[in-house]
Each structure stands twice: as C-alpha cells, then as structure tokens.
Specification:
Elements: H1 4-20, E1 24-33, E2 43-47, E3 52-53, H2 60-75, E4 79-83, H3 91-94, E5 100-108, H4 115-126, E6 130-138, E7 141-142, E8 148-153, E9 156-159, H5 164-176, E10 183-189, E11 192-201, E12 206-210, H6 214-225, E13 229-234, H7 239-242, E14 247-251, H8 257-260, E15 267-271, H9 276-285, E16 293-296, H10 300-308, H11 329-344
Parallel strand pairs: 12-13, 12-15, 13-14, 15-16
Antiparallel strand pairs: 1-2, 1-5, 2-3, 4-5, 6-7, 6-8, 6-11, 8-9, 10-11
Length: 361
C-alpha cells in the first residue's frame, strides 16, 4: 500500500466514492524491473469519470492505466496490466527510463471490496505496525473472482482468504518478513502456483516540535505539507501555534511530555526552544525513548554545551539538518525535514548525481 500519508488521501477518496454509491478501480504495482516512477505496493485510485488519486506513472503508462481502470469499472472484472517487451508495450523504455511494470487493477464496486481499506485505516488510527498480503494471481492471471487479502498486526488479523491452509502460510511468511521492502512470494496451491504480494505497514510519520517561534512554525508547516502528523509542544504555546491548520498543540513541559505524547519508533522529535536549559531538560527526558530521529537546533558551540550535560550518549542530530546553506526559517525547516526523511529511509542524503545507489532502494 502507499506511504502512510498517501494512504490517508487514497482512503478519503475511496470513502467519497462509497458515499455516492459510485464504483472505482484500484491499480496496484505488484512487480517492477529497472527504473520506474513508483515502487511495488503503491496504489492508485481511479473514479468512473477518470479522476485519479495518487498517480502511479508519468506520460503514456499513466494514461493507459486510467483507460484500463475505467474498463475494469465498466466490466467489474479485475485484470493485470503488463508494460514490458513481451507485452509489446514497453513505453517506459521508450521514455528512456528502462523500466517495466506489472499492475493489478481491481474494481471497487461492492461494500466488501472496501473492507481491507477499512482494516488498514484502523491500523493507521492505532499507529500500529504490521503487514498486508494480497493473493493476486494464479498461473499469471488474476485470482478469480477477485484478489484476496490479509491485514495483520500483533497477532490480530482481518482477511477474506477462504483457504485456511493458504491463510496460515501467508501469516507465517508475513510474520517472518523483516525490513521495509515489499516482496512477492510464489506459493504452491494444489496443482497451481499462486503469487502473493507482501507489504510492510507502518503508521504515518509523526514529528514532535518543542518550541513556538518562527523556526518551529516553518517546520510545522513543512511537516503538514509532507503529510506527516505534527505536534507542537511548549509550556506556553503562542497564538500562532494554536492557529496552524493540521497541527496538534500541547501545553507540555519536559517533565510532562512523555505522559502527554505517545512516542514510538515512527516519531521524530526536534528541540528548537532557543532556551539552553529547556533543551537540555527535554533531551534528558527523552533518553532511552525509541525515536526515528532526534535533533536540536543551534550552533556548534551551543550543541557542545548541550552534549556535555547529557547523562548518556544519545543518537542526537545536532545541529539538526542537512548542510544546504540554510539561512531563513523556511530553509532551515527544509534542511531538517530532508534529514529526517533520509534517516527514516537509511540514506546518506548525498547528491544523486554523485551516487551510484538506486534512487528507489
């Protein structure tokens, strides 16, 4: 499934279709080879009028996918679209990308077709990690009459997989997968081979900002623009913080924040109070808390003073942000947000032009 922030947009669009009693189609990339616009597991929602939420490709592939999706809506029959040399439709090669795609397109017309999206939404609301398995093809054709799924987290699962033995194997494989990457597994089922797409699930990234000032406001706006969940915490938040759309504002001190905010490994935190004593207390209170990223704004001299007063060695990004020559609050926010993304994806944040690594790992 899409990134957590994209899922919220896709789910909202799907609910609008449901409210109108209208049908749609979900197009999901199940396999890729070479360079492609999006990675396996990414989904696009297409309405009967051709409207699109979360595009999968650029240029010709995107246009063809929409046409195929509208056909699926009309026929109520799922299909797999292949864009490669064998299919005679290697438009990505023609565009110079050198990539190939295999896309599952399925109708969303009955209430049960939306059920797995509801199960995913529950996990997002709980900020729970887990995995989703999509049983999508048998002998290269879409599993009749439609794909089947299992959504699992901490032992609890929703599913519409009818075969108990297949379901048990899916649970075992999904529970044993590690890392953040999508995987396709080919399982034997009787005399046939069945392809299953396994996707890790994680909650939307959350950013906790300590402090209310111009820099904190700029970083909060950046976080909202990226689709992150954003919390601003300050003992006495100012009016500007309370007025920011999409931002939760908490009147919290370093001593009370751990009770007020449920920190987890999908949460990043940045101290930018511009008060040395308060930043030290904040960081001391966060010692041992599992976080995706912890940063503090300030000069190298200020950072040295802070580090000297921390009780233990901490994985601290200080000064926070990438070295892009930032000066304004907005530029500093960009540098910090970019470093958070790089850390969460285990990237070095170097120039793409100077790197030989794949753009999409």
């Amino acid at each position: 499934m899409n990134s957590p922030q994209e899922f919220r947009r896709l789910f909202a669009a799907a609910n609008r279709l449901r409210a109108r009693g209208a049908a749609g189609a979900l197009a999901t990339i199940v396999r890729t080879a070479g360079s492609t616009y999006r990675r396996p597991g990414t989904s696009m929602l297409v309405g009967g009028d051709g409207s699109v939420t979360c595009p999968l490709a650029g240029g010709c592939p995107q246009n063809d996918l929409v046409l195929r999706a509208r056909r699926v809506i009309e026929t109520d029959v799922p299909e797999i679209a292949r864009y490669d040399r064998d299919a005679g439709f290697d438009v990505l090669l023609e565009a110079g990308c050198g990539g190939e795609l295999e896309v599952l397109i399925e109708p969303l017309s009955r209430e049960q077709d939306f059920a797995f999206l509801d199960a995913l939404a529950v996990l997002h609301e709980r900020r729970a990690r887990g995995f989703m398995a999509t049983v999508f093809s048998r002998r290269g054709a879409v599993l009749p009459p439609h794909p089947q799924r299992l959504v699992a987290s901490n032992g609890a699962a929703w599913h519409d997989i009818g075969d108990p033995s297949l379901r048990e194997r899916v649970v075992d494989i999904g529970g044993g997968l590690r890392g953040e990457h999508v995987a396709v597994r080919r399982l034997s089922a009787g005399q046939a081979s069945i392809d299953v797409l396994f996707e890790p699930l994680r909650p939307v990234h959350r950013l906790v900002i300590f402090g209310t000032n111009d820099g904190a406001a700029a970083l909060a706006r950046m976080a909202v623009g990226l689709g992150w969940s954003c919390v601003v915490a300050d003992p006495s938040p100012d009016r500007e913080a309370n007025a920011m759309d999409g931002v939760d504002v908490l009147a919290a001190t370093p001593e009370t924040m751990r009770q007020s905010i449920g920190f987890d490994r999908d949460t990043s935190a940045v101290a930018m109070t511009h008060n040395l004593e308060r930043d030290v207390r904040l960081l001391q209170a966060l010692a041992g808390v599992p976080l995706a990223y912890l940063g503090v704004i300030g000069s190298r001299e200020r950072v040295a003073l802070i580090r000297a007063r921390l009780p233990v060695a901490m994985d601290l990004h200080a000064p926070a942000g990438l070295d892009i020559g930032s000066e304004t609050p907005e530029e500093i926010a960009l540098a910090v947000a970019a470093e958070i993304i790089a850390c969460s994806r285990a990237r070095t944040a170097g120039s793409l032009a100077a790197s030989a690594l794949p753009i999409h790992p």
